[in-house]
Protein: NADPH:quinone reductase
Amino acid sequence: MSEYTMKAIRQHAFGGPNVLQYEDAPRPTMKAGEVLVRVQAIGLNPPDWYLRDGLKILPPEWRPPVHFPLILGTDISGQVADVAPDAAGFAIGDEVYSMVRFPSGFGEAYAEYVSVPSSDLAHKPAGIDHIHAAAAPMSLLTAWQFLIEEGHDAPNPLQSTPHMPVPLEGKTVLVNGAAGGVGHFAVQIAKWKRAHVTAVASGRHEAFLRDLGADAFIDYTRVAPEEVMHDVDLVVDAIGGPTTARFLRTLKRGGALFPIFGLGASGGDEAAQRGVTVSTTQVRANGAQLEKVGRLLNDATIRVAIDSIFPLTDARKAHERAAEGHIQGKIVLTVK
Structure:
C-alpha cells in the first residue's frame, strides 16, 4: 500500500450489511482548517445503518445526494498524522477523538485515515483508551446537547423553536431506552446533576444501569412504564419516534418530554392540554463540547459502556450485531 492509499470499509450500493466491503481507498487529503487523523477505533451509531440502507428513514426531501463508493461513520479516536497550516490547537502525535462533520457532511470514519475539521476535534481523555473514546462522541454529545447545553445556534430542523434543556437538580427523570448508547449517558448526566433517575430497559440490563447510578428500574417487558410512573419532571425517550407520546401521561404539569429521535413524534395537542413541553433537536459536531465532557470521561464521572468490539475487517458483522438490538452501550470497530 502506498502513502496515497489506505484500507477502508466502502459500499458501492445501498443495502444490508453485505454491501460493506473491506478494500483499498484513496487516503483523504486535508482541506483548509483540517487535521488528518490516523484512526485507532471507530464508534458505530444508528445514522451509520440508516445511511448504509439509503436513508429510507428520512423524508425524501431531507436525503442528501450520495455518491458511491461511500464510506460510513462519524465517530473516531486516533492520533494526529498531519495538520493544515491554519488548523490551530493540534500537533502531530496528539491523541484525539471526534464526531466528524455530523450532520452537515459525511464523516467517512470507517477507514485507517480521516480528515477532520479542527472545530470538530478534541484531545482524547487520557484516562480512557481509544476504544472507549471512539464510542463516546455522537451518543454523549446527543445526551449533553439535550440535557446540558445545545452549544450552537443553527436552526432546529425538527421544530420551529430552539431546544432548551431544563434544570435537573432535585428533579425526577425517566430515561427510556436507558441501556443504549444515548440512554446510558443520559442516566449518568442526570445523576451527575443530582436528579432522581428511573431507567427503563429490559430486565437483563438492570444491574448494569444501577451500577451507572439509576435510582430505580422498570423492566418494560413486564410492565409498561407509562402505566406506573406519574408526576415525572422530565422524560428522556432515547427511542423516540411515533410511540413517544405515550409518556405524556407520566409528566406533571410543567414537565418536559425529550424524544431523542424526533421524526414521527406526535402529541402536540395533548402536550398543550397537559401543560407540558415536547422538545427535540439534532446533535451537531462540537469539538469544544468534547473537550469539556472529556474531563468527565477522564475522571470516570461518566463511563462509556462497550457492547462489543470488532476489527474493521468485520464491519459487516458489527452491523449485524446492531440489527439484533438490545445493545448495552456501544459497538466499536478497531483499526490495526
